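Case study.
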Amino acid sequence: MKTQTKQLVNEGMWSNNPVFVQVLGICSTLAVTNLVLNTVVMCVALVFTLSLSSMTTSLLRKFTPRNIRMMVETLIIAFYVIIVDVVLKAYWPQMSENLGPYVGLIITNCIVMGRCEAYGNSNPPGVAFIDGFFNALGYTVVLMIIATFREILGMGTFLGYAVPYFSSEYWDKWIIMVMPPGAFFMLAIVTWIFRSVKMSKEEKTK
Amino acid sequence: MNISDQMTQAFIVCISAIFTNNILLSYFLGLCPFIGCSREMKASVGLGLAVIFVMTCTCLLNWLVYHYVLAPLSLEFFRFIMFIIIIAAFVQFVEMAIERFSPYLYQRLGVFLPLITVNCAILGASLFMVIRDYTFIVTIGYGLGSGIGWFLAIIAMAGIRQKLSNDSIPKGLQGPGITLIIAGIMALAFIGFAGVLAGQ
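After joint prediction, the assembly is written out as follows.
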C-alpha cells in the first residue's frame, strides 16, 4: 500500500504530470492564471472535483453498464461542479463573478474525465481518490508557477499585495503577461523546461 | 430592442467573436483538440466545420431550454447538466442523421463528431451566452462567430505546423511546446484586431 501510494504521488506530480506530459485540461484554467488568487480558488475547486469524482466513479464501477459509463462519469463530475458553483455563489459572489463560466467548464476539463476513465474505472475507491488528488495537485503546482510569474511581471503584485521591486517605477510592467498571449508563452516555457529536465534525467538513468 | 437593432448587434457580436474575442485565442477554450488534432490540414478542416455547425445549433437549443424551461422553474444551477446532456444528445443525433443521409459527409465529419462532445469551447460558448444575457437573435451571431473563430484558428495552426514539420526543434519543445508558442504569437496578432470594433 505504502509503495503504491508513493508511486501514485510520483506519477501525478512528476512523471505523468497532467499539464506538461499529458497536456490535458489546460483549457479551462489557463484563463484564470492572470491573478494568483483566482488560480488558487480554481485549483481548489479542481482538486475537490477530481479526487471525489474519481472516487465516486470507482465506487460505482461495478454497477455501471459499460456502454453508458461516459454519460455516468459526466453526470458524476457535473454533480460535484454544481456543488462548487453553488457554494461559491453563496459565500463568495465576487469570486464567482471573476471566474465567470470557467467553474462550469471544469465539467469538460479533459483531465477530470481522463482520470475517471483511466484510473477510477478500474481501481478501488481509496487509491482512485489518492490518484485523483495528486493528479490535481500536480496540475495545481504548474498553474501556480504560471500564475505567479504572470501576476508579478504583469501587475507587480502577488495575491494583490505589491511586490517591492516589480511594483516600483523601475520596473516597466509587462502588460502582455496579463493578456492572453502571456498565458500561452508562460505555459510553453514551463512545458519546455520541465520536459527538458525530465528527458535529461531519463537519459542519465539509462 | 426591435428586430433591426438586434440584427446589427448580432452582426457586431459575430465579428467580435471571430476576431477580437476569439474563443480560442483569448478565452483558451477548446485547447485540447487544438493541440492534439492540428497536425494535419484535412483533419483540422473537418473538425473546424463540425465545430461551427454544432456550436451554432447547440447555442440556440441551450438558449431555448435556459429561457423557457430552466429560468421559469428557477433551476438555473441545473444548467451545467442540462447543457451537457443537450450537447451530447445533439451530437449523437447529428451523427446518426449524417450517416443515414449523406455517406460522403459522414466520411469527412463522422470521426470528429464524438470528439466534439468533450470540446470545452462548445459548452463554454453556451455558458458565455447565458452570462452575457444575449437575446435569441444575438445568440445566432455569437454561436456562428465563435465557431468560425475556432475554425480559423485551427486551420491557421495546421498550416503553420505543416510547414514546421521538417524543421529541427529542440527536443523538449517539440509537440505541445512549440504549438503553444505559435498560439501565443497568433493571439498577439489577433490583438491587432482590437481597434476594429471601437465602442464595443
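Observations recorded in class. DSSP finds nine helices and no strands in chain B. The two ends of chain B are 18 Å apart (CA to CA). We will return to this complex in the next lecture.
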